[in-house]
Amino acid sequence: FARKEKLSEEEAARQVRYEFLSKVSLRYKANKIALGHTEDDQLETILMRLIRGTGQEGLKGIPPVRILNLKPRIEIVRPLIETSRSEIESYLARHNLKARLDSSNLKPIYLRNKIRLELLPLLRKYNPRIKEVLLSTVRILREEEEYLQENTEKVFNRVIKEKKKGRIGLKLKDFSNYPRALQRRVLREAIRFIQGDLQGFTFQHYENILKLTKESPSGSQIDLPHNLIVQKDYGQLNIFKKK
What we know:
Helix content: 40-55%
Number of strands: 8
CATH class of the largest domain: Alpha Beta
Number of helices: 10
CATH architecture of the largest domain: 3-Layer(aba) Sandwich
CATH superfamily of the largest domain: HUPs
Mean pLDDT: 90
Largest sheet: 5 strands, antiparallel
Strand order of the largest sheet: 4-5-8-7-6
């Protein structure tokens, strides 16, 4: 699956988990899936995205609630996202409960593990309050991102020429008149509409699309993760799923 979708092992495993949980939810007619992410997971995610490269949307971190692109509607909820791992461990100790531990979490074989076991202890030497500082930054960015997202959706609706399941067509001239930063945000909205989320897409993917719009002749196209195609047509930029 990872090779087919051109994903890392971590990302591929994540998608398989979500697919399994979604199927179970639909089977039992549940409309919410509760996950156990903590604020420590939030911190690790922010650092991981910084290392790999991300924009402001990525730096707002793991959302407390996320709606899956499914019918009927299913919500991913994270009730512990503002609770620390140490608080949970203390609670378990007070109530004589045992935590389930994934032994692979203790080995620096994946980037998240390396951040937890190696990078964070080093950063705490520079700032013992690094966790509080970064989580405060996340809260600020989330509020600002909400404002920017409202404006992005307005522009997105203005430049749409064609919109149907699995396909978006953008008016190329109108799209090109907006600042580059807003163009990237509009592209993310288009991909999110088709794919349901932005997992597997990087800054470089959006840059490649923008290069296509400005430098390539009509009829040119590029491949994206998850079997998406971006095609430059006469006066239109098409994004669609490969059949």
